[in-house]
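REQUEST FORM: STRUCTURE PREDICTION
Request ID: SP-0412
Submitted by: Lab K.M.
Chain count: 1
Length (residues): 327
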Amino acid sequence: MSDYTKTKICVPEYVNLEDVDKCFRDSDYEFVDIDSSTFDPASELEGCEKFVLFEKDHFVVHIKDKLPLKFHYQSRNMVMSYMGYGSDIEFNLRDFVEKDGVKVFKELPILYFVRKSDDITELFSNGTEYNTIVEYYDKEDLAEFARITKAKKNAVNHTFVVYKDDKYTCHDTDDTTISYAFSAWLKSRIIGSIREGKANIQTYIDEEKHLAEKRPKRKRDPNFRLVDHQGEEVKEGEGFFLKILRKGEPDDEEEEEEEEEEDNNDLSFFFGDAVYVADHIEDDEEPFLRGIVDAYSSFQATTIDGVTYLTHDGLFLYTDEDHEHGH
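STATUS: Completed
RESULT:
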């Protein structure tokens, strides 16, 4: 049985939770009503290492053997994320400024709208979502989402993000038809950019259109052969690993292993059902795939209607569009 207990958030009778923006990290905390006339922070710390106390216009982090720290509510998910992972709050204060005795993160949080039925694991644990607030919905209503976003006093007002089915879409609050959809692979770059200004949404739309027009048409190579590390053609149904080789890369296996370790692996699995090629290969390099036959092989070659496909556990290897775009 786990000894894990949730950190408490103590809520006095004069704080209305409806006035406090929701956060992704809320599920990792236990909200407890308290009587402010009898509550004693020092006594509370005798039974725990840390807790959070809500006040009307700020919240206070109490940590054993340390002075209490006051924070603005707009930074709540950021602070609670640091606390949840055991990070040293004082160390991370370099990213905060102080106003009227209350510490606040230097950037406003961005508002996410998340469908209630969706799993928020990706949002709960990813650093990109630390500086956020969230609203959960049953029915998508972009006009209402825009109204809610504009009404927020301590959040980004010009854009919001809708998260649904593991996909993200940012919208302009003045015209919700101006939107850009992206995946988790790109969110760190895009969220940071649209936080700075809504004009960046149109920039991404234009860039996407430009790349689509510039990208050469795909065509089959009738002379394509999938070969193993000895240059022999891979047989139908034979298993093998894949290794990305770059122009000028040495063939010595030890040197290749060292480079692979330094590059943190060029080829990797994502949730076990797809394979992605990292986009750190330079444009002037010419990477190609080589099959390496091994007793613990991951892939197989399958020919259908004269076309060779790579499969893994019955799933087809494909090029992810986000990486293909070169973002």
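NOTES: The mean pLDDT is 77.
Reviewed by: T.R.
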